Amino acid sequence: MLAIKIINVSVRDVRFPTSLEQHGSDAMHTDPDYSVAYVVLETDKAELKGYGLTFTVGRGTEIVVCAVKALSTLVVGKTLEEITSDFRGFYRLLSSDGQMRWIGPEKGVIHLATAAVLNAVWDLWARVERKPLWKLLVDMDPAKLISCIDFRYLTDALTEQEALDILVKGKKDQKSREEQMLKEGYPAYTTSCAWLGYTDQQLTQLCNEALAQGWTKFKVKVGADLQDDIRRCSLIRKLIGPNNTLMIDANQRWDVNEAITWVTKLAEFQPLWIEEPTCPDDILGHASISKALAPLGIGVASGEQCHNRVMFKQFLQASALQFVQIDSCRVGSVNENLATILMAAKFNVPVCPHAGGVGLCELVQHLILFDYISVSASLSNRMCEFVDHLHEHFKSPTVIRNAKYIPPKDPGFSCEMLEESVKKHQYPEGEVWRAIEKQQK
Ligand SMILES: C[C@H](O)[C@@H](O)CC(=O)C(=O)O
Ligand SMILES: [Mg+2]
């Protein structure tokens, strides 16, 4: 079955007009239209396809689509066997192409495109093995998993042998953790109640609904106006009570000292973490913020815009974050996220993935299940983000029960979209966008 050949890569620009209702708004992205570059790998077995995507926002999507087209020449003609027998080599082929790497390397648009393509390859592999991706990873021999990771630039922090040792150790009691996940699910928190553009009335209503559904951990957007933040954090803390968990997210709005002063003023609301307090590239800045906020019991979380494994390495080496927020589409897919998960395990820092957007929850649930079952074996200070938007457009949408992700059962990486949804939301020709254009005229 692995002999199947990829004969075509199609990519489409699919956008959802979420900005109309301020869903997803934060201190830096005030009008996000949640979007994806949606990739389908066609194979020489007509019934077998690989589906992948990367999350983007609005107008940026067409640039990512262009980058996927550029990468597709490296993929067409390859068999799944060729790719998976040397996945590290294939990762390098995509990320280190002699001409295209100049516009990265391993960062920005080209890396988002790499994520979309590799996500589709992993989806195809899991479908061929007739397993959901998390199960493919959990069942995989540790040495094979290691062979998928590019350790270049990492070995001063994590060697292949150390990574292998972590995975071998993770095999102990793996079966019982898998059974626990299938029965109980993986703990989640919600960001859906408190986007920055929501009114206090909306926030109150959504928060009460979430509490009634069993949610106990909530994230609120901050960073644009201190008095607004104090009012909103006070409101949400009153609604959820002293024992539930609150996190705050500034989406890179502040300078380093400003972040420390601002968050100190919000400390009375007892946030567990401040997320993306400053520029996502400023590792030493995050370290200063972490040091200053530690006495207040507030950690720093980051990762949704962390370019690659090398930056995660430095964040960990510099004790610059206390929560690692892997993202299934920002970096080079499962291959690179495996490296980050293993580094986080070595540095003993919890992984709490970024999700939301379009499809990010569907994808990242597989990675966090793998982290718990095969690597960290711990739920302490760990949870996965959940955002309740746009799941209806997926063939195998996330299942949440009692504020927990229930492990997906369908084969693949859960990123196949409904063709009807793709057609309707394709930009600019889909009927949803044509109707908006007509209204605006
Ligand atoms: C623009 C996105 O909605 C962003 O605000 C998401 C985010 O920061 C998060 O979910 O965390
Ligand atoms: Mg965030």
- The CATH C-level name of the domain at 166-419 is Alpha Beta
Strand/helix succession: EEEHHHHHHHHEHEHEHEHEHEHHEEEHH
Q: Characterize the overall form.
A: globular
Query: Strand sequence of the main sheet, in spatial order?
Result: 5-6-7-8-9
Molecules bound to protein: the ligand C[C@H](O)[C@@H](O)CC(=O)C(=O)O, magnesium ion
Secondary structure tally, helices: 17
Mean pLDDT across all amino acids? 98
Give start-end ranges of low-pLDDT stretches.
none
CATH superfamily placement of the domain at 166-419: Enolase-like C-terminal domain
Task: Walk me through this protein's architecture.
The chain has 441 residues and is of the alpha/beta class. The protein has a domain at 166-419: Alpha-Beta Barrel (TIM Barrel), CATH 3.20.20.120. The protein has helices at residues 61-72, 80-85, 87-95, 108-128, 133-139, 142-146, 160-170, 174-184, 200-212, 226-240, 256-266, 283-293, 309-317, 333-346, 360-376, 419-425, 431-440, and strands spanning 6-15, 34-43, 49-57, 186-190, 217-221, 245-249, 271-275, 299-302, 323-324, 384-386, 399-401, 404-406. The strands form 3 sheets. Strands 5-6-7-8-9 form a 5-stranded parallel sheet, covered by helices on one side. A 4-stranded mixed sheet has the order 10-4-12-11, with helices on both faces. A 3-stranded antiparallel sheet has the order 1-2-3, with helices on both faces. β11 and β12 form a beta hairpin. The termini are far apart. The mean pLDDT is 98. Bound molecules: the ligand C[C@H](O)[C@@H](O)CC(=O)C(=O)O and magnesium ion (MG). This is Mitochondrial enolase superfamily member 1. InterPro entries: Enolase-like_C_sf, Enolase-like_N, Enolase_C-like, L-fuconate_dehydratase, Mandel_Rmase/mucon_lact_enz_CS, Mandelate_racemase_C, Mandelate_racemase_N_dom, RHMD-like.
